[in-house]
Design a protein that fits this description.
Chain A is α/β, with parallel strands linked by helices and 143 residues long. Chain A is 25% helix and 17% strand. Chain A has a single domain, classed as 3-Layer(aba) Sandwich (Rossmann fold). Chain A is globular, with a radius of gyration of 15 Å. Chain B has 550 residues and is α+β, with helices and mostly antiparallel strands. In chain B, helix 1 runs antiparallel to helix 2, helix 1 runs antiparallel to helix 4 and helix 15 crosses helix 16. Chain B has 4 domains: 104 residues, Sulfite Reductase Hemoprotein, domain 2, CATH 3.90.480; 149 residues, Sulfite Reductase Hemoprotein, domain 1 (2-Layer Sandwich), CATH 3.30.413; 83 residues, Alpha-Beta Plaits (2-Layer Sandwich); 135 residues, Sulfite Reductase Hemoprotein, domain 1, CATH 3.30.413. In chain B, a hairpin with a 5-residue loop joins strand 8 and strand 9. In chain B, the strands form 4 sheets. Chain B has a 5-stranded antiparallel β-sheet. The longest helix of chain B is centred in the first third of the chain and has 22 residues. Chain C has one domain. Helix content of chain C is 18%, strand content 30%. In chain C, strands 3-2-1-4-5 form a 5-stranded antiparallel β-sheet, covered by helices on one side. Chain C is globular, with a radius of gyration of 13 Å. Chain C starts with a strand and ends in a 22-residue tail after the last helix. The chains are: A alpha/beta (143), B alpha+beta (550), C alpha+beta (98). At the A-B interface, helix 2, helix 3 and helix 5 of A face helix 1, helix 2, helix 6 and helix 9 of B.
């Protein structure tokens, strides 16, 4: 299991190893699963209630499929830990957080101070996503 | 035009701060070039043949005099006194230093401009009709919708690492002046039988290595669901676009490979899901933005009279001045294609002059066209003569709009690291060959487009005459294409045959125009004659063996 | 011969490895030798040059001539704006590129 160093949840981390999406279907007691870029996150939707950890792998930071995977899971109500692992760099952290990731296990260590600064890059956001931040259009037109 | 509120301003300011920090970390060696490159590309900064090149966004091609003047000042302060207007309505500077880039972005931010997402595998500048808000045939001004798309696509967290670049164009008339069907997403605002406005989504068009005309994917999407539908289109692309081969990574390949029907099915599924999330800005936001695009305060009773006794002025009016929907007013096209000049280039002084003219004569508004020209959209006819004289003094009065002298050319191998051949010298030679304006007018509408490589930034596939520069064993060579066209009758050009050297391609173009003149029927443009008689007569003339002189 | 070229990290200027440092003039370029990769790695690490590569060139009467037209244009400047090139006073400078 990849050692994590940035985690933004208050619950206890899962200690089970993350299994692949294919293996997960056969293992009724697995609670942690790992999504590769080519996997379909929607395959996990029937099982969200028993998943405590989803790792989304970024073998290359230029492969942006993991952002969609994360967001889809959150949009369908997944409330467990959603961790970005692999080639995760400082400059992607704020967008990843906006897509629903709440922990990060980058191959190259990132200090928590640098991460906090990265999350504070945008004083506002143009889009409504899964992170709860109100979009600028919502602020312009309070309901 | 749109004006930033404090939210918009804080976003561009935050971007400047983010990039300044990224540049510092790069110069200190804290991040590698591989890690830094996508970051600088997302701020429009390329490393080209001679220096860094900065591509500044001109959202849907619209800007005011203050912004235009800043573009001129940036050319003087940070570059070498000129800028280049591009086929996506942007401006490029060719001699930029990385260490200056954050300051340039700060200067741009001070006039509500930026270079956000003008490169990189993300959503690029949304382009539109250069006559928006002025043309008589407009159903609805597309620019408020373009502004909505601009904000939706800016720093979109899910779509920052797409398989490849993504280009959107939006129009609001039947006449397509933005080459909409040759974009990743093209949106046409249409009216249904009930008189309601809707968005027709074309998805999967493009040029480059495998040019394709976009099929209709969403026939009639409510404008109040436009953002959600676009989100669905992008999500399907982000998830399933090819990432194994850079030359097969655009959405056009995905749509082509799975088929338009399957792509539509996936989009509709995603769209249905996205509609449950409440991502769409409210109607009030579109109305707020529309408020910035209301008709300017035209003078009622402005005169439609024009004194055309000056023959040069008369030619310019005839060719470059278009009818405006408001009586007494006109749309002025400023050609950046002087005979023998570099297409799309303008000096800092010329840029500032155009800014001044816009302020004085066009309700402080200019447009950049994807044909690399400038438009003053709302000029009183009574002001035209004085305006023309000033343009003429500054070398901006070439009366060649849409004629063969109005060449579209990418920067090519003189500037661009991606190019295989130079394009500008070819443009200059053709321009000089056809220098005589009478000859150009005789040929009529003839859109000639030159690309220095297969990336097709010169849009050669869509040229009535297209030229593609290639590398033939280290020597520059040029292929000729005929019969491309943008607009409602979009078609892709066909290659004539073996390529030519630089002089040969100019001769070949001339021979093609000779065939047209010999064969044309009444009222036919070059492209119409080509479509009627086909390639064979052109091919025969172009490749005919020269008679041997005894 | 093989020579090393790159772009100045800060300014983007085209530069050529001289054996001791970097020059903006291709005629100052030297044979890279068998340590080219080590030189490139060392110089990249100094954060002064980027996009560094080994390219082919020949020595002619006019000096060092890169084998590929793209590198010749890099060495000179834009052929259509010789006033902005390294040879602004020579109207025939573009011929060297072909």
């Amino acid at each position: 299991m990849v050692e994590q160093n940035l985690r933004y949840r208050s619950d206890e981390p899962v200690s089970d190893p993350a299994v692949t999406v294919d293996a997960f279907a056969d293992q009724s007691n697995a609670t942690a699963v790992r999504i590769e870029p080519g996997d379909d996150a929607r395959a996990l939707l029937p099982h969200l209630d028993r998943i405590a950890l989803v790792e989304v792998n970024f073998p290359a930071y230029t492969d942006g499929r993991g952002y969609s995977a994360a967001r889809i899971l959150r949009e369908h109500g997944y409330a467990g830990e959603l961790r970005a692992v692999g080639d995760v760099l400082l400059d992607q952290l704020s967008h990843m957080r906006r897509c629903g990731f709440d922990s990060f296990a980058p191959d190259q260590a990132i200090s928590s101070e640098a991460a906090e600064k990265a999350f504070a890059t945008w004083p506002d956001v143009y889009q409504k996503t899964v992170d709860g931040r109100p979009a600028i259009w919502a602020k312009r037109h309070p309901a | 035009m749109y004006q930033y509120d404090s939210y918009d301003q804080s976003m561009v300011d935050a971007r400047v701060a983010e990039f300044r920090d990224q540049v510092e970390r790069r110069l200190a060696g804290d991040i590698t070039e591989d890690q830094f490159k996508p970051l600088r590309l997302k701020n429009g900064l390329y490393l080209q043949l001679h220096a860094y090149m900065l591509r500044v966004a001109v959202p849907y091609g619209t800007l005011n005099s203050r912004q235009m003047r800043m573009l001129g000042d940036i050319a003087d302060k940070y570059d070498r006194g000129y800028g280049h207007f591009t086929t996506r309505q942007n401006i490029q500077y060719n001699w930029i230093k990385l260490e200056d880039a954050p300051d340039i972005l700060a200067d741009l931010a001070s006039v509500e401009m930026h270079a956000i997402q003008t490169s990189g595998n993300c959503i690029r500048n949304t382009t539109s009709d250069q006559f928006a808000g002025a043309a008589a045939d407009e159903l609805v001004d597309p620019r408020p919708y373009a502004e909505l798309l601009r904000q939706w696509s800016t720093f979109h967290p899910e779509f920052d690492y797409l398989p490849r670049k993504f280009k959107i164009a939006i129009i609001g008339s039947e006449t397509d002046r933005a080459a909409m069907k040759l974009h990743d997403i093209g949106i046409q605002l249409v009216k249904n039988d009930a008189g309601e406005i809707g968005c027709r989504f074309y998805v999967g068009g493009g040029m480059g290595r495998t040019p394709m005309i976009a099929p209709v994917i969403g026939d009639f999407v409510s404008p109040l669901q436009m953002v959600s539908y676009a989100e669905a289109c992008l999500r399907v692309y982000n998830r399933y676009g090819r990432r194994d081969n850079k030359y097969k990574a655009r959405i056009k390949i995905l749509v082509h490979e799975i088929g338009a029907d399957e792509y539509r099915r996936q989009v509709e599924e995603e769209f249905a899901h996205i509609l449950t999330l409440g991502l769409e800005p409210p109607a009030a936001e579109l109305e707020r933005i529309k408020g910035f695009f209301e008709q300017p305060g035209f003078a009622a009773g402005a005169s439609d009279e024009l004194d055309l006794s000056d023959p040069d002025f008369a030619l310019w009016v005839d060719q470059n001045v278009h009818a405006h929907k408001q009586p007494g007013y006109a749309i002025v096209n400023i050609s950046l294609k002087p005979t023998g000049g570099i297409p799309g280039d303008a000096t800092a002084d010329q840029i500032r002059l155009m800014a001044d003219l816009a302020l004085a004569h066009s309700f402080d508004e200019l447009r950049v066209t994807h044909a690399q020209n400038i438009v003053l959209p709302h000029v009183k006819k009574a002001d035209l003569y004085g305006l023309w004289q000033k343009l003429d003094e500054a070398g901006l009065a070439a009366a060649n709009l849409d004629l063969i002298g109005d060449i579209i050319a990418c920067p090519g191998l003189d500037y661009c690291a991606l190019a295989n051949a130079r394009s500008i010298p070819v443009a200059q030679k053709i321009s000089n060959r056809f220098a005589d304006l009478g000859r150009q007018r005789e040929l009529g509408e003839l859109k000639l487009k030159i690309s220095g490589c297969i990336n097709a930034c010169g849009h050669h596939h869509a040229g009535h005459i297209g030229i593609l520069g290639v590398d033939r064993k280290g020597v520059e060579n040029y292929q000729l294409l005929l019969g491309g066209c943008e607009g409602a009758d979009t078609s892709l050009g066909t290659i004539t045959g073996p390529g030519f050297n630089e002089d040969g391609i100019v001769d070949a173009v001339e021979k093609a125009t000779d065939v047209y003149l010999a064969q044309r029927a009444e009222g036919e443009r070059f492209v119409d004659t080509y479509r009627r008689i086909g390639m064979a007569p052109f091919k025969e003339a172009i490749y005919a063996k020269e008679p041997v002189n005894g | 011969m093989k020579i090393i070229t790159g772009s100045d990290l800060r300014t983007g200027d085209v530069i050529w490895w001289t054996g001791e440092g970097w020059s903006r003039h291709v005629n100052d370029a030297v044979e890279a030798g068998e340590h080219a990769e080590a030189i490139i790695a060392r110089e990249n690490a100094k954060q002064i040059v980027t996009d560094t590569q080994v390219i082919e060139a020949t020595v002619t009467d006019d000096g060092v001539r890169p084998a590929h037209i793209k590198d010749r244009i890099r060495a000179l400047g834009p052929t259509v704006r010789l006033d902005l090139s390294l040879k602004p006073a020579d109207p025939a400078a573009g011929n060297w590129v072909i």
